[in-house]
Amino acid sequence: MNDLIRIGMDTSKSVFVLHGVDAAERPVLRKTLRRRQVIEFFAKLPPTQVGLEACGAAHHWARELGALGHEVKLLPAQRVKPYVARNKNDTADAEGICEAMSRQRMTFVPVKTAEQQAALMLAGMRDQLVARRTQLSNTIRGYAAEFGLVAAKGLEKIEPLLARITGKIEAQLLAWHRQNELSRRLAEIPSVGPIGAALMVMKVANPRAFRSGRDFAAWLGLTPKDHSTGGKQRLGVITRAGDEALRRVLVLGATAVIQQVRRGRGHSSLWLVALLKRKPPKLAAVALANKTARIAWKLMVSGERYRGACATEVTHGNVCFEGASSQPRKPGAVLAAVKARPGSAAARRTGNATAGLDGGCARRPTTIAVGTKKRSMVEQRNESHGHD
Q1: Cβ distance 77 to 54 under 8 Å?
Q2: Under a CB-based contact definition with an 8 Å cutoff, are residues 336 and 346 in contact?
Q3: Of the candidates 132, 160, 179, which is a domain's last residue?
Q4: Are 230 and 284 in contact (CB under 8 A)?
Q5: CB atoms within 10 A of CB 113
Q6: Contact, 53 vs 75, CB < 8 A?
Q7: In b/e form, how buried is each residue of 245-273, taking b as 16+ CB within 10 angstroms?
Q8: Residues 371 and 257 in one domain
Q9: Which positions ≥6 away from 332 have C-beta within 8 Å?
Q10: What digits encode the pLDDT tens for the residues 33-86?
Q11: Cα-based torsion angle of the residue sequence 254, 239, 201, 161 in order, rounded to the nearest 10 degrees
Q12: Would you state the pLDDT for residue 318?
């Protein structure tokens, strides 16, 4: 190692390849180091020349190796390329760096201090923000021009233009909502506003393509993932499948309702109040969005109007959920349909209550549909073996 006069080092995130030569230009060092070994290895070497390409993190390593007494030279990558052998690999790059740094006409990049790099990062970030601002303002102007809205030059004209665009778009959406009978009926559901109702009508062209409200909620990604194996069903988080915008609107609307309920405002259902006492607000919001999707599907296929809690059912001691149907339902049915595992005690207890969630809608007897009145094939097979 005492014969070393020059080392070329090819750097990367984790692997560092070294190539060193002696005074006769004969290779005397070929070594591969991990990141944690670099400082330890160079600390044991006598001061020598070390060459690196001026790429990512090169200034950091130049400062670290320079603090150990080595003379570090940073080479422009385009000036190193002519000295690399025909095959491109880390070993060839290190050898090419070692040879390039020995040339008399080679130019080097000055090593920057940490303060200089920090200042350059701030300047670069400012340039990027200015570019993003210009790009965004041009995008806004281009979209506005498609609707006949133009503004004078200058960034100060963007905010008034945005206000005009937002007002005009919202006015057009509300006008469309008022003219559409189905959208008006859907907006009567708590947690569904004019924008959400219009979006649902626009995106769900044929609600009868879904056989039940459960299928519609599954299409929106509001039902749990199925991780079943070996005859055991395990349900996880929601699938997040289907239309993301429509699912987001439903969840946001449910979140707004839950915020009002927690503040004691509005007319909240007993089911939602009981749910919030047992479960976190985010989980309750997903369950409420699932329920809202089923109610919306029922309204779309039946042509009925939304009806709130039924006084007659409450009088008889049953909790009547809001929806297109007036069938009595028990609190916790939607959450059980989302979280309870089939075959468990919780799933059996909530079976009849969950079966009424669709308001009498058709459903297929599958084991994935938790809480249906149909028994799964696994249960039937176990009973048949028990009788034998």
Answers
A1: yes
A2: yes
A3: 179
A4: no
A5: 10
A6: yes
A7: ebbebbbebbbebbeebeeeeeebbebbe
A8: yes
A9: 271, 274, 275, 278, 350, 353
A10: 999 999 999 999 999 999 999 998 999 999 999 999 999 999 999 999 999 988
A11: 70
A12: 38
Instruction: Report the domain count for the chain.
Output: 3
CATH number at residue 27: 3.30.420.40
Whole-model pTM? 0.48
Residue 380, amino acid? Q
Long-range contacts of 91-94 (CB under 8 A, 24+ apart): 91/10, 91/17, 91/19, 91/30, 93/10, 93/17, 93/53, 94/8, 94/9, 94/10, 94/17, 94/18, 94/19
Least Cα distance to 200 among 154, 247, 236, 156 occurs for: 247
144 lies in some domain: yes
300 domain-assigned? yes
341 pLDDT above the threshold of 70? no
Give the strand pairing for 27-34 and 49-53: unpaired
CA separation for the pair 35, 9 (Å, rounded): 12
The answer to whether the CB of 32 falls within 8 A of the CB of 56 is no
DSSP letter string, 101-152 = TT-TT---BPPPPHHHHHHHHHHHHHHHHHHHHHHHHHHHHHHHHTTT----
For residues 329 and 10, give the distance between their C-alpha atoms in angstroms, rounded to a whole number.
Answer: 70
290 found inside a domain: yes
32: Cα separation from own chain's centroid: 39
Residue 331, exposed/middle/buried by CB under 10 A (0-12, 13-18, 19+)? buried
Domain extent at residue 128: 117-179
